[in-house]
Amino acid sequence: MLRLLALALSLALSACDSPGMDYAGIPPVMVEVDGSTFAVRRKGPEAQAIRLNREYRKGAMQRAFRAIETGTGCAIRPDTLSGDPAMAYAKLTCTGS
């Protein structure tokens, strides 16, 4: 029974949109890129993308890159995208903001 409860809880949390402390309270912009759904949050010159769907295919970081640029309207500064396929961070270059 305990094992079943733990499994149910982990499945419920796997699609959770829980931003890091630095992004708490910032409403997300929902972005879909090639079937992947991301919650993108911008805080000044930085952004975070959280992938909301489960998937086991390659290219999640490239889709996170596109989601951040789409969701913020800013370009990602070269060599600043970091994180993992579930949560990515980047520094931005924004014109006009």
Proportion of β residues?
A: 25-35%
Order of helices and strands: HEEEHEEE
| Biggest sheet details | 6 strands, antiparallel
- Let me know the number of strands: 6
List the domain count as a whole number: 1
Determine the structural class based on helices, strands and strand pairing: alpha+beta
Textual characterization of the structure:
A hairpin with a 3-residue loop joins strand 5 (82-83) and strand 6 (87-93). By secondary structure, this protein is of the alpha+beta class. The longest helix is centred in the N-terminal third of the chain and has 13 residues, at 2-14. It has one domain (2-93). It contains 2 helices and 6 strands. It is globular, with a radius of gyration of 14 Å. Strands 1, 2, 3, 4, 5 and 6 form a 6-stranded antiparallel beta sheet that branches. It has helices at 2-14, 60-72; strands at residues 29-33, 36-43, 46-51, 75-76, 82-83, 87-93.
Compile the SSE list and pairings.
Layout: H1 2-14, E1 29-33, E2 36-43, E3 46-51, H2 60-72, E4 75-76, E5 82-83, E6 87-93
Antiparallel strand pairs: 1-2, 2-3, 3-6, 4-6, 5-6
Short characterization:
Strands 1, 2, 3, 4, 5 and 6 form a 6-stranded antiparallel β-sheet that branches.
Entry keywords:
97 residues, alpha+beta, six-stranded antiparallel β-sheet
